User: Which sequence fits this backbone?
């Protein structure tokens, strides 16, 4: 499983970015390998369609789960189409959000 | 040939609709045939000032959006890469996101499989009605649609019955404004006597002049502000055809939808002389 | 913490958006202020910022024809959906006001005579006021990209508000329902719906609320120029109740307020904005 969190700086200690479509980076955790990586969201400054561009980025990186503080209704619909499970009301540091999620799932 | 008078002003809420309805009624009272076009299709209001409207026709405004034939899509991503508006995503197949689509048709052209075709969707409505001795054509942009341009064009195509076409234009100085005043014989600026009105009007004047449209002015709520609008007109060499003073009772009547031509004797006299000045100008 | 993004909107022009924004601006809350009415920006006239920087922006693209290369085959003007290319003396001519910058003409041109170039969109201004930093922009007259300019402007203001750790990003919205309004509302936490208590004001606010409902955003209402007729006020109130939108503040129709405001004086003594502030916070 690959879990993504929008973050405000390219590190796993970085705080989450509240607006997922406008986040410049995504922190991605791969539960198989146990590794973190940070990918850039090229659409973060897009004048049109930042939300779709962000979902496309997640999809291109084979993300299964998105944790965010807040996801707009349009982005939510699109995430569902992309087959990405989205969970809201996560905040704080990116790494902590991922841990919290894994704990709640009873996973490793 | 019909004469097209565009009422515009840059700032919102300066009295464009009031003056447009009032002027249209003044033309009617002089025995002229008039079409009033409500081109503020995002927030149309002219109809609120008529009590006796009878709807004559109602027509949908269509626009085409791309649809991907799933069985033919190979997910190559060329459509997504071409689209400058991020309106296409490719997961297993290409998906078009209507609300971001500008209807340029580019994706249809670039798809190597010919897998994208276009389908018509409703983006608004044009309603024609008669009442108060004139023809009123209003455009309604569907809520959620971003681009008023096609609806504005349809209203202009439909409202051609009168000798005088009075165009109630949207605020601003961007694309909706350009689309509305395009082809007008003159732009009658409705400018409120405030620093805000003067500031925003300057921009509208620049656009109108670039488009080769003559500009005249009605100062509204005259005496309320600092008179800056008169200085702007002088600087720009724009003739002020009328000054409408601010009257509390008239404001109260207009807020309730009382027709501006009947709201007060003073306003009616101003509208009549404005009409006469325009007729003299156009007919020599 | 992200700042709370508050967008003041009304649908109708002249309903009192800028007045309410300026009154909210004049409260002690830490904030960055952003005027998103880029076609008719007025907030700076009230707040009198000391301008510290301005920048010409080129957002999006516009088509340009190399006249010496164009063979006049006409494929571009047939393909353009925006009637933005005309046949002038047997060669293609781009009408920049109508060009959306989609790139279709450049794609269909067999002679590669069309290039997509950056378009001058408008100017962004940054200044300081007594109540916080202000961002505003002036769309170049007639440009079609006001929505993009709004997004860019708000993005800058948002970043600044975050960097400063402000509690609010306060946004004065444009009138209407189209592209610039959608860009202004997108990403908001709270929309302050300014309803002018007139037939037009109500009609416009109803349409705007239908738009706002498409976003995941909290709505509070201000009734402006109220008290003109009991019937209108009643309708306004009933409608807000039906829509479960709290009415935070009611400002009566008053020539005194109008006259002060018409001279760019903020009628702070005549309007107590605190009920709205409480409702937002």
Assistant:
């Amino acid at each position: 499983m690959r879990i993504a969190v929008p973050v405000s700086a390219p590190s796993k200690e970085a705080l989450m970015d509240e607006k997922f479509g406008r986040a410049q980076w995504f922190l991605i955790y791969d539960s198989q390998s146990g590794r973190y990586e940070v990918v850039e969201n090229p659409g973060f400054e897009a004048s049109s369609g930042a939300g779709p561009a962000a979902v496309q980025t997640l999809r291109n990186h084979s993300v299964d789960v998105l944790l965010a503080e807040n996801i707009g209704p349009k982005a939510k619909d699109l995430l569902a189409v992309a087959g990405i499970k989205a969970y809201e009301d996560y905040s704080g540091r990116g790494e902590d959000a991922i841990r919290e999620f894994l704990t709640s799932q009873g996973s490793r | 040939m019909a004469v097209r008078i565009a009422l515009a002003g840059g700032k919102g809420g300066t009295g464009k609709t009031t003056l447009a309805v009032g002027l249209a009624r003044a033309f009617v009272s002089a025995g002229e045939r008039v079409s009033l076009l409500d081109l503020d299709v995002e927030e149309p209001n002219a109809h609120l000032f008529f009590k006796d409207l009878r709807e004559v026709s109602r027509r949908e405004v269509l626009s085409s959006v791309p649809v991907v034939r799933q069985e033919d899509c190979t997910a190559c991503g060329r459509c997504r890469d071409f689209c400058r508006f991020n309106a296409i995503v490719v997961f297993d197949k290409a998906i078009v996101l209507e609300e971001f689509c500008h209807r340029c048709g580019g994706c249809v052209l670039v798809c190597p499989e010919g897998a994208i075709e276009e389908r018509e969707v409703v983006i608004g409505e044009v309603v024609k009605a008669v009442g108060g001795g004139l023809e009123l054509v209003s455009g309604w942009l569907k809520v959620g649609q971003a681009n008023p341009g096609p609806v504005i064009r349809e209203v202009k195509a439909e409202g051609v019955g009168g000798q005088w076409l009075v165009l109630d234009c949207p605020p601003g100085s961007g694309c909706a404004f350009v689309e509305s005043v395009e082809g007008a014989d003159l732009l009658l600026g409705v400018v409120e006597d405030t620093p805000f009105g003067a500031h925003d009007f300057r921009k509208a004047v620049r656009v109108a002049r670039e488009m080769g449209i003559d500009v005249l002015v009605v100062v509204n709520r005259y005496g309320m502000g600092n008179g800056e609008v008169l200085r702007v007109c002088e600087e720009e060499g724009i003739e002020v055809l009328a000054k409408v003073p601010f009257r509390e009772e008239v404001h109260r009547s207009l807020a309730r939808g009382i027709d501006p031509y009947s709201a007060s004797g003073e306003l009616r006299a101003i509208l009549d002389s404005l009409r006469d000045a325009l007729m003299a100008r156009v007919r020599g | 913490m992200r700042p709370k993004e508050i967008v003041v909107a009304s649908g109708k022009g002249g309903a009192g958006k800028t007045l309410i924004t300026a009154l909210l601006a004049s409260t002690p809350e830490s904030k960055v202020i952003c005027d998103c009415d880029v076609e008719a920006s007025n907030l700076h006239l009230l707040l009198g910022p000391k301008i510290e920087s301005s920048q010409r922006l080129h957002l999006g693209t516009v088509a340009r024809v190399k006249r010496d290369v164009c063979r006049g085959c006409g494929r571009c003007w047939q393909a353009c959906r925006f009637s933005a290319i005309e046949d002038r003396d047997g060669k293609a001519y781009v009408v920049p006001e109508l060009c959306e910058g989609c790139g279709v003409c450049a794609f269909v041109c067999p002679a590669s005579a069309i290039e997509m170039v950056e378009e001058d969109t408008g100017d962004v201004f940054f200044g300081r006021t007594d109540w916080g930093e202000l961002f505003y922009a002036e769309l170049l007259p007639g440009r079609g990209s006001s929505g993009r300019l709004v997004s860019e402007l708000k993005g800058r203001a948002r970043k600044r508000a975050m960097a400063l750790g402000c509690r609010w990003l306060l946004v004065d919205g444009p009138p209407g329902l189209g592209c610039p309004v959608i860009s202004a509302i997108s990403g908001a936490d709270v929309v302050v719906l300014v309803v002018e208590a007139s037939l037009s004001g109500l009609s416009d606010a109803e349409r705007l609320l239908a738009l706002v409902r498409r976003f995941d955003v909290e709505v509070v209402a201000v009734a402006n120029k109220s008290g003109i007729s009991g019937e209108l006020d009643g309708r306004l109130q009933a409608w807000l109740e039906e829509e479960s939108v709290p009415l935070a503040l009611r400002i009566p129709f008053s020539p005194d307020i109008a006259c002060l405001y018409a001279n760019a004086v903020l009628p702070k003594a005549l309007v107590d904005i605190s009920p709205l502030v409480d409702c937002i916070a």
Summary: The beta strands of chain A are 2-7, 25-30, 35-40, 65-67, 85-87. DSSP finds three helices and five strands in chain A. Chain A touches chain C at residues 18-19, 22, 45, 47-48, 70, 72-73 (CB under 8 Å). Residues 80 and 86 of chain A are 8 Å apart (CA to CA).
